[in-house]
Write a structure and sequence with these properties.
Helix 4 packs parallel to helix 5 and helix 5 packs across helix 8. This protein has 16 helices and 21 strands. It is globular, with a radius of gyration of 23 Å.
């Protein structure tokens, strides 16, 4: 099963580079140009220069920056191999919580082997970008986020035991999330952790593009005679999928620029598959949906302006068996599968290619963001969803299937720049 190893991470030398809080950043794909410039204005050595390079030749520029920082001691590689324990503490939707996992190297495996399992479709453009960056730098600057099943929670207990003292790094970011890092170099302890994963599968929570890119990079090195074996491993953050601090948020769908869009007709046509419940006060939609979520019902809300909205509750699961006979019960049971299959594709005519290219579909994380898009006229309507359960992610991945894009949003994101992996 999963083969994991301790490693000598590349980390910022804060004596030269400055405060660690000014050197890290969120994942590259959620950073605007304005935010990128703001990070660099605080500290020109922010990791964003490597993770999200800009200019006429951005990838080679990132490679030059990396070599300069290594020469000047801004970055340095740890002397000993270690397992890096990482914790995030945060508040979301009134809940204050935290989760902890370990950052290690994981041996790359083809998805077909069933050892590392994806759960979501990916986009080609993002993979090309990350591949070019990896070729130019020979590094992973951010971790792939994966989950594992450990019914007795032995690994989490060990990580808690090994992180009882003060962390080597601690910072609170602009979103109020506190990040902590501990380093374990005792060979006996790192060996215990490595062996604990020997019977486990890993389920990618976030970072599908980076994992597929790592496979492509490994194959590229082999094909071009430059393989050293280092590229057979990728850096991952591993978290117990039953950790009580895990939070998955929904990703809502916005429909825009759809020709001849008629909300009344859509709702009328929906009655074939759904019970329709009219509600007032769109701000209450997430709470109403949560109640249905807890009851195990497949439901989502439809909003096209004003204060009122409509909840659509699936009448009969068997319709998905008929329309998706080649999919597993786990896949057919997803709210997002119900929405995409019955409403977006069947009733609105937005096919899978359209969704992938985001021609008539946009994704947002916050309810108020979805409402604002509709009321401002940027979107014709919004579909408000419940979050996907972690157990659903596991079951779909275990069935060898992938959810539609943007089916899950693990909160908070892992910060970039605390720990890096140099091949």
């Amino acid at each position: 099963m999963a083969e994991i190893r301790p490693f000598r991470a590349l980390r910022f030398n804060t004596e030269k580079a400055g405060d660690i809080a000014e050197l890290v950043c969120p994942p590259y794909d959620i950073i605007s140009e304005e935010q990128r410039l703001a990070y660099l204005s605080k500290n020109p050595d922010n990791i964003i220069r490597l993770e999200l390079p800009k200019g006429d030749d951005p990838y080679n520029e990132a490679g030059k920056t990396l070599r300069t920082w290594l020469d000047e001691g801004i970055l340095r590689q740890d002397d000993k191999e270690g397992v890096y324990i990482y914790e995030e503490e945060f508040t979301v939707n009134g809940l204050h919580t935290r989760f902890k996992g370990c950052i290690v190297r994981v041996k790359l495996e083809e998805f077909s082997k069933g050892i590392v399992l994806p759960h979501e479709e990916t986009l080609s453009k993002a993979k090309e970008d990350r591949f070019n960056l990896m070729k130019a730098t020979g590094c992973n600057f951010s971790q792939i986020y994966s989950l594992y099943n450990d019914p007795q929670h032995e690994i989490t207990k060990k990580l808690d035991e090994l992180s009882a003292d003060q962390p080597v790094n601690e910072l609170t970011d602009g979103d109020g999330v506190t990040h902590r890092l501990w380093i374990v170099t005792d060979p006996e302890e790192t060996s215990f952790i490595s062996k604990a994963f020997a019977d486990k599968k890993l389920y990618i929570a976030d970072g599908h593009h980076r994992y597929e890119t790592a496979l492509n990079y490994r194959n590229y090195c082999r094909e071009n005679g430059i393989a050293t074996g280092e590229e057979d491993y990728i850096m991952m953050m591993l978290v117990d999928m039953e950790h009580d601090g895990l939070v998955v948020l929904p990703t809502h769908r916005l429909v825009r620029d759809l020709k001849d869009f008629d909300p009344d007709k859509l709702l009328d046509d929906s009655r074939e598959y759904f019970d329709l419940i009219q509600k007032k006060d769109i701000a209450s939609a997430d709470k109403k949906l949560r109640k249905l979520y807890d009851e195990g019902k497949k439901a989502f809300a439809f909003y096209c302006g004003g204060e009122d909205y409509t909840i659509l509750v699936l009448k009969d699961d068997s319709i998905l068996e008929e329309l998706l006979p080649d999919k597993s019960p786990a896949y057919r049971g997803l709210d997002v599968s119900v929405l995409h299959t019955l409403v977006l594709e069947r009733l609105l005519g937005i096919d899978k290619e359209n969704m992938a290219k985001q021609i008539n579909l946009t994704y947002v994380k916050q309810l108020d963001e979805a409402v604002s898009a509709v009321t401002s006229g940027k979107a014709q309507c919004a579909f408000i969803l419940n979050p996907t359960r972690v157990s659903e992610i596991r079951d779909v991945a275990a069935a060898g299937e992938k959810m539609p894009q943007k089916s899950t949003y693990f909160y908070p994101k892992l910060i970039t720049g605390l720990v890096m992996n140099r091949f």
